[in-house]
Amino acid sequence: MQPRTTTQQGESPPRSAFLLAFDLRKERPTNRRRLGCLLRAAALADLMTSGSLADESGKARAVTAPAAPGRLQAAVWEQIAGSPPRSWGSWIRKDHAQAYRLVRDELEAARLVRVERRRVLLFPVERVTPRKPHLSRRLAERVARAVHGGRPVSRLSPDVRLLAALAAAAHLKTVLPGREWRRHQHRIEQLSAPIEPITTALRKTLQADASAGGGG
After folding, report:
1. Sequence-distant (≥ 6) Cβ neighbours of residue 177 within 8 angstroms
2. Type and span of the H or E element at 15
3. Judging by DSSP bridges, how do beta strands 59-62 and 86-87 pair with one another?
4. What are 114's strand-pairing partners?
5. Residue 123: what are its φ and ψ, rounded to 5°?
6. Cβ neighbours of 114 (radius 10 Å)
7. Given strand 59-62, what is the order of strands in its sheet?
8. Would you say residue 216 has pLDDT above 50?
9. pLDDT at position 176, please?
10. How buried is 168 (Cβ within 10 angstroms: 0-12 exposed, 13-18 middle, 19+ buried)?
């Protein structure tokens, strides 16, 4: 994969993944735990494609510090650089709630999402809605086209290819129905090749979570 660039909206992979995961009919993002894992995977993929991380026998290995990383990428890099090599799946599962908060706060600061906070029976409750739904819709359309295969994978922009690979691993219903993802397995394998250890780990993590009853 050629060096990754940001999307046309100027978003990093984690921020794009968050916007992509919005259910626009319900005006809310997908299940928070699943989204947190997806955001961690997006940060890992960003670091891997930029040369900051490498795969070493199924484990993430720090190579070189990233230049001007987002808050989530910086947090993930510091964790990996300061630890012995661990599996990609362990890094995807780690601190997924923090990943959600970091990216949500970045998007709120950029005025791309609105966060309404209140208390219900003393418990804090928040509602996150998109300020610019057309950005989520446009991302979903671009990712869906990438999966359907209108253009050779080699001619797709790196950011769309990366986002499509992650969305496929997560079977994001905001892009395609579940059955539709299974129809494009060969294309998804092509899209995922540069970050295959990460997409495989993300898929297995979310499948295990769903089997355990945590992936509603």
Report:
1. none
2. helix 13-20
3. antiparallel
4. 129
5. -95, 135
6. 13
7. 53-56, 59-62, 86-87
8. no
9. 93
10. buried
174 has pLDDT over 50: yes
Q: Distance (Å, rounded) from C-alpha 22 to C-alpha 29?
A: 4
Q: CA 130, CA 112: separation in Å to the nearest integer?
A: 6
CB atoms within 10 A of CB 112: 18
| Helix 158-170 / helix 185-192 crossing angle, nearest 10 deg | 130
CA distance 101 to 191: 28
- DSSP 8-state symbol, 212: T
Beta strands in the chain (DSSP E): 22-23, 28-29, 53-56, 59-62, 86-87, 113-120, 123-130
pLDDT digits (tens, 9 = 90+) for 80-138: 999 999 999 999 999 999 999 999 999 999 999 999 987 777 777 889 999 999 999 99
Total length of the chain: 216
Using alpha carbons, select from 172, 159, 130 the residue that is nearest to residue 45. 159
8 A C-beta contact, residue 2 and residue 9: no
- What share of the chain has pLDDT > 70, as a percent? 94
pLDDT at residue 3 tops 90: no
